[in-house]
Amino acid sequence: MTSSDQSALKIRLATEADLADLSALMTLAIDRLQSEFLSPEQVEASHEIMGLDTQLILDGTYFLVELGNQIVGCGGWSRRATLFGGDQTPGRNAAELDPAVDAARIRAMYTHPDFARRGVGSLVIRTCEAAAGAEGFKRAEMAATLSGEPLYRIMGYKVLEPFDGQTSRGVIVPLKRMGKSLI
């Protein structure tokens, strides 16, 4: 992507009308971007613990990035306790966080594989951090995939703890809880 392409990136809030396109982008990103870091079995299992969380769209905290008419990335933040996962992921917690003591959640970051490492993810993260900060959050945390970790480190996030994403078939997907101060 050229610098003129980067300046042509547009970010906006996602709507329910975007759900099918977002879901397709997420599937493609999981399948192609995780394959450098995970076994084929782990990539397949990732679909159980990752994906579309419609609560973020309903809360007005989920963004998508377009280049022309193509969605090239998406991601959001949350004021809810769930750290990661899609609608299908067990153990979700919709309790609202207290910005005075809790960290906002950076959630569901996906980039179209043809646009990876070209500024799409950093645009989403900066937008999410600004929105969370505007609501009084002083910190942000996320569950990072191994493929996303390099970007998050560049953006100032530190590993707080590694942990295993557990799937119903017993396949373990390695993740890392990462955090950053927003002030």
Features:
31% helix; globular; Aminopeptidase; alpha+beta; 7-stranded mixed beta sheet
SSE arrangement:
Layout: H1 3-7, E1 9-13, H2 19-33, H3 40-49, H4 54-59, E2 62-67, E3 70-78, E4 104-111, H5 120-134, E5 139-144, H6 149-154, E6 158-166, E7 172-181
Give a brief description.
This protein has a single domain (3-140), classed as 3-Layer(aba) Sandwich (Aminopeptidase).
Structure write-up:
This protein is an alpha+beta fold. 31% of the residues lie in helices and 29% in strands. A seven-stranded mixed β-sheet has the order 1-2-3-4-5-7-6. The longest helix has 15 residues, at 19-33. The termini are far apart.
How would you spell out the order of helices and strands? Answer: HEHHHEEEHEHEE
**Shape-level CATH architecture:** 3-Layer(aba) Sandwich
What is the CA-based Rg, rounded? 15 Å
Count of strand segments: 7
Task: Kindly state the percentage of residues in helix.
Answer: 25-40%
Distance between the termini: 31 Å
CATH class: Alpha Beta
Q: Can you summarize the main beta sheet?
A: 7 strands, mixed
- How big a fraction of the residues is strand? 25-35%
Point out poorly predicted stretches: none
Structural class: alpha+beta
By DSSP (H or I, 4+ residues per run), the number of helices equals 6
Trace the largest sheet across and list its strands: 1-2-3-4-5-7-6
Q: What is the global morphology?
A: globular
Mean pLDDT: 94
